[in-house]
Write a structure and sequence with these properties.
This protein is an alpha+beta fold. The protein is 49% helix and 15% strand.
Length: 378
């Protein structure tokens, strides 16, 4: 079997590395020293560079000005973005755009996708429900108000980049138990945003919908649309966790190779080397399970389990693995790891944000067990 990436996927990763080469992880105030959000907006200059490099249109079809690549390419770019803690809505905009392209009607796609690919339009998704641990589609109700329109009511919490997004993808459930996906303009009548701040100091929002109207073409009624979007967001978050963990391990290797104790670099001590080796194994497991899930998303391949099984395995490794990696890094850095003039504490805060976004590993293990019970292997 050939596990190498295609030339187009590798080119996307190389372009991302070039764009992110000069991004400083400590360009904003430290979340440890800031009351409230670290910035009022995301990194607009970096967003413009991503658009100029055609990295915002990677997944879009050629008729919408894109390159027609797959989620594997997006995950390669997200991996590089996380290494520098890039403050851009790349995952959310790309995932929502791909979902609209696949499931939305032509009018909606023509309205949103070309502008999103050029960086003129920012998209985000409300994926966490009311508490962060319930089904997001259960937090909002959707009623057909007449023959063509819809009305949305409910609350979504911790919506990333909501203050700056032009459209928010909101999953909702109907009276007959179906799940629909509505693309709502941020300033639509009845939509209220309340500021929330994540552990990494980024501005989130609680989105409250009070009899918010939506036209027929703004609502995607295919139930697979939300399932697909949720899988894309989750797999992309796993890619971010991998990139962040790899950069943290690089920082740890560099520090322990230079820091001396009793006349020797601490990296030569067995206890230090074993801990670093354990985290390397975590990262390789995160990588293998990530690419399995991204591959299933990219080619719609059949497997012993549904796609949700591979995504669950990737989530289990990502949320546990990234936590263990940053904790070990803090330990091996000693007091220096808590120095707010050194960027490691920022990576720790971002890792906690990603871990909370993914949810507890135990919940994913339970979901995986249910899938295994329903689809016996062999």
């Amino acid at each position: 079997m050939d596990f190498t990436f295609t030339e187009e996927q590798q080119a996307a990763a190389e372009a991302a590395r070039a764009v992110f080469a000069n991004v400083a992880p400590d360009a904003t105030p430290s979340p440890a020293l800031t009351t409230g959000a670290v910035a009022d907006d995301f990194d607009r200059p970096l967003w413009a560079k991503l658009a100029a490099a055609d990295l915002l249109s990677l997944l879009l079809a050629k008729e919408h000005g894109g390159a027609g690549l797959d989620p594997l390419a997006l995950c390669l770019v997200l991996r590089e973005a996380a290494k520098v803690l890039a403050r851009v809505p790349l995952l959310e905009t790309s995932a929502v755009a791909l979902t609209v392209q696949r499931y939305g009607d032509k009018e909606l796609a023509d309205e949103l996708l070309p502008r999103a690919g050029r960086g003129e339009l920012v998209l985000t998704a409300a994926a966490h429900g009311r508490t962060g641990h319930e089904g997001a589609e259960l937090a909002v109700t959707a009623r057909q108000s007449d023959g063509s329109g819809w009305t949305l009511d409910g609350v979504q919490t911790a919506v990333p980049w909501a203050r700056h997004a032009d459209h928010i993808a909101v999953p909702a459930h109907t009276e007959d138990g179906r799940t629909v996906l509505a693309l709502i303009p941020r300033d639509r009548t009845g939509t209220t945003l309340a500021d929330q701040v994540s552990t990494n100091g980024e501005l989130l929002a609680e989105v409250r919908l009070d009899a918010v109207p939506a036209t027929a073409h703004e609502v995607i009624t295919d139930p697979a649309a939300w399932e697909r979007l949720h899988a894309l967001l989750t797999t992309g978050t796993c890619a971010q966790a991998l990139g962040l963990g790899e950069r943290v391990l690089e920082m740890t290797a560099a520090y322990t190779s230079q820091r001396e104790q009793f006349g020797f670099p601490v990296a030569t001590f067995q206890a230090v080397a074993v801990q670093a080796a354990d985290r390397y194994i975590d990262l390789r497991a995160m990588e293998a399970t990530l690419w399995q899930a991204a591959w299933r998303l990219s080619c719609d391949a059949d497997g012993a389990l549904p796609l949700a099984g591979d995504v669950a395995v990737a989530k289990i490794w990502a949320c546990d693995g990234v936590r263990r990696t940053v904790q070990t890094a803090q330990h091996l850095h000693g007091g220096f790891g808590a120095d707010t003039d050194y960027p490691l504490h920022r990576y720790h805060a971002w890792a906690k944000h990603l871990e909370l976004s993914l949810g507890p590993a135990a919940a994913h293990e339970e979901a995986l067990g249910d899938l295994l019970a329903a689809h016996p292997l062999g």
